[in-house]
Input
Amino acid sequence: MSKLPPIQTVKACPHCGGDQFFVVYVFSGKGEAHHLLNGEAGADSSGMHDGLKFVPQVTAKCSDCKKAIGRWDESKDGPAYS
Ligand SMILES: [Zn+2]
Output
């Protein structure tokens, strides 16, 4: 496969012209959700995602034809498309 362009330079799918894409995220690990026994809000669940391993795949794919259309950099491209 030829080198894909950075996703932010892709304005439309070169294969089908689609304007939507997706990145597959792989989650593994376990988390904890803490609740108070009296039902009140306020339990500390801030560490809930600490045990999760977050490994986004680096290829962005067209939502329509599912072909790879660009490279995804989570730290750079994540905020740009939020
Ligand atoms: Zn497409």
Q: What stands out?
A: The chain has one helix and three strands. The longest strand covers residues 53-62. The pocket of zinc ion is lined by residues 13, 15-16, 18, 62, 64-65, 67 (CB under 6 Å).
